[in-house]
């Protein structure tokens, strides 16, 4: 069986969009139980908590470990809630199955490594649990799809993906740049695979969670994974992106759900998706333009130090010809490129002139 043939009807059991919520990290049994008790099961159907936390630098809190699985199991027994946790390697996956965890997700740092994915897939062979795959940290759609294909090859039939955004060298208002067009391409190629948005990791900021959650539903996502905490500011990890269960409910109550595609709404649905792609690409363009202007400022400073004129006609002509030639290969008209390049060059010259006048 291949990925396109899978009938992912497991998502249809939920009358409302699936929302998986809980703390970034399980910190204590008391904390886990309090959060679960405060979650409104009409809006948050699955309880999540990080047990093992892959961190960027050593010395950071890396999770309570296997003891936290006992706390998750208690949530499942006392509140009759399905439970979810991240598995970063094969041993984590085996332990999660032993504790009857219902939803296992593979994190972005694991998805990027095919060897790790293969080991996890083999440890989960033929499981009937739902396995969710977060996008890799870098914007590589093939790695994301490859992870799903490795799971399918091991007889795993209940699959979904989580869009948590992509790491980027350039700064933006997001912790992880959403790059919606990558997730939408996966959605186009595999419309049968449910997709959840992860506004907590995309934004890294609690004040943007509502905005990104709505954007996900504008693009017909099947649900969300959101980090909630009983005391967000005191969280042991990722405190800035966590909210209270009550705050998440307020967001979900206000969410506007878009209609599913049908013949009459097909145009509007496609239009919303393409507009989402344009919004994301515009954000990327702005980030690149800002980075270019920063380099122009450095050049201005260098020219000032060496008493060199700002405008270099030979350099400008070479740059313009090269950009127009490359742009035309990409289907962009010479007239459009001429106007764009002149505007960019004008702004660069003005920035360098201000540096010269200081």
Automatic annotation (TrEMBL):
The keyword Transmembrane helix does not apply. PROSITE patterns: CHORISMATE_MUT_2. One of its GO terms (molecular function) is chorismate mutase activity. Pfam families: CM_2, DAHP_synth_1. GO terms for biological process: chorismate metabolic process. Its EC number is 5.4.99.5. It comes from the Bacteria. Residues 264-291 form a coiled coil. Keywords: Coiled coil, Transferase. SUPFAM superfamilies: Aldolase, Chorismate mutase II. It is an enzyme of class 5 (isomerase). Residues 265-356 form the Chorismate mutase domain. This is chorismate mutase.
């Amino acid at each position: 069986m291949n990925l396109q043939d899978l009938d992912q009807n497991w998502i249809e059991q939920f009358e409302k969009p699936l929302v998986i919520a809980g703390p970034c990290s399980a910190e204590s049994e008391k904390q886990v139980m309090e959060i679960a008790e405060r979650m409104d099961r009409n809006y948050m159907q699955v309880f999540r908590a990080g047990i093992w936390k892959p961190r960027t630098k050593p010395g950071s809190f890396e999770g309570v470990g296997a003891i936290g699985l006992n706390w998750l199991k208690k949530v499942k027994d006392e509140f009759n809630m399905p439970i979810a946790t991240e598995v970063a390697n094969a041993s984590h996956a085996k332990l999660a199955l032993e504790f009857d965890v219902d939803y296992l997700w593979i994190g972005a740092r694991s998805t990027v490594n095919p060897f790790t994915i293969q080991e996890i897939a083999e440890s989960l062979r033929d499981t009937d649990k739902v396995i969710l795959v977060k996008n890799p940290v870098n914007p590589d759609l093939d790695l994301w799809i490859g992870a799903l294909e490795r799971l399918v090859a091991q007889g795993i039939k209940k699959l979904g993906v989580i869009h948590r955004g992509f790491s980027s060298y350039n700064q933006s208002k997001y912790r992880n740049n959403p790059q919606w067009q990558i997730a939408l391409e996966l959605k186009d190629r595999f419309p049968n695979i449910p997709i959840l948005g992860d506004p907590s990791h995309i934004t890294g900021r609690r004040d943007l969670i509502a905005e990104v959650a709505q954007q996900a539903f504008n693009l017909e996502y099947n649900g969300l994974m959101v980090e909630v905490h009983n005391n967000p500011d005191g969280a042991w990890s990722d405190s800035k992106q966590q909210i209270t269960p009550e705050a998440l409910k307020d967001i979900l109550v206000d969410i506007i759900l878009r209609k599913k595609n049908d013949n009459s709404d097909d145009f509007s649905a496609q239009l919303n998706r393409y507009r989402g792609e344009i919004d994301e690409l515009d954000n990327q363009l702005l980030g690149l333009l800002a980075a270019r202007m920063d380099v122009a400022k450095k050049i201005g400073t260098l020219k000032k130090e060496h008493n060199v004129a700002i405008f270099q006609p030979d350099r400008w002509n070479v740059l313009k010809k090269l950009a127009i030639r490359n742009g035309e290969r990409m289907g962009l008209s010479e007239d459009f490129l001429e106007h764009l390049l002149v505007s960019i060059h004008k702004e660069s010259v003005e920035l360098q002139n201000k540096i010269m006048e200081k």
